[in-house]
Design a protein that fits this description.
- Helices cover about 25% and strands about 40% of the residues.
- The chain has one domain: Bacterial Protein-export protein SecB (Roll), CATH 3.10.420.10.
- The chain is an alpha+beta fold.
- The protein has a 5-stranded antiparallel β-sheet.
- The protein starts with about 20 loop residues before the first strand and ends with a strand.
- The protein is built from 2 helices and 5 strands.
């Protein structure tokens, strides 16, 4: 004889039958990719550790009913003794289907969680582009999008950028 356990399916989220929020990753894609090696082949023969400057920006917008696009823009520039070794720019985005998500949770999801989902894929593209350009792969450190978002909120801007 099996015992039946009432899990309270009608009140599973504790909010009197309110539907649970759902997030669907509809598609991820590179919108723009650029790699420049303006001083080749000299830049490929340089010795020493290059100086690398990385900038990150996040943008989000509504793309349709319940569909939102989150964009992650990464720019990296390497210089060696004042000469540009390479510049790589990537605009990587994803479409996310969001249902039953409270309005106040949309922006934090789109500029914190969505970029966190997109980042590993963008990181690989950057690494592959620099490797294919003749340099060691540029392996970007993980980004704390929540801290970036909070810093931008304290600064009073709506767009997250320049990590």
């Amino acid at each position: 004889m099996a015992d039946e356990i009432d899990l309270g399916a009608t009140e599973a989220n504790g909010f009197d039958n309110e539907p649970l929020p759902q997030v669907t990753i509809l598609v991820q894609y590179a919108k723009d990719l650029s790699f420049e090696n303006p001083n080749a082949p000299t830049s490929l023969q340089a010795t020493g550790q290059p100086q690398i400057e990385v900038n990150v920006a996040v943008n989000a917008k509504r793309a349709g009913e319940g569909v939102f696009e989150s964009e992650l823009k990464i720019t990296a520039k390497a210089t060696n003794d004042g000469d540009t070794a390479f510049v790589v720019e990537l605009l990587y985005a994803g479409l996310f289907g969001l249902t039953n998500v409270p309005e106040e949770a949309l922006e934090p999801f789109l500029v914190i969680e969505a970029p966190r989902i997109l980042f590993p894929f963008a990181r690989r593209i950057i690494a592959d582009a620099t490797r294919d350009g003749g340099f060691p792969p540029l392996m970007l450190d993980p980004i704390d999008f929540a801290s970036l978002y909070m810093a931008q909120q304290q600064a009073g801007t709506n767009q997250v950028g320049n990590a």
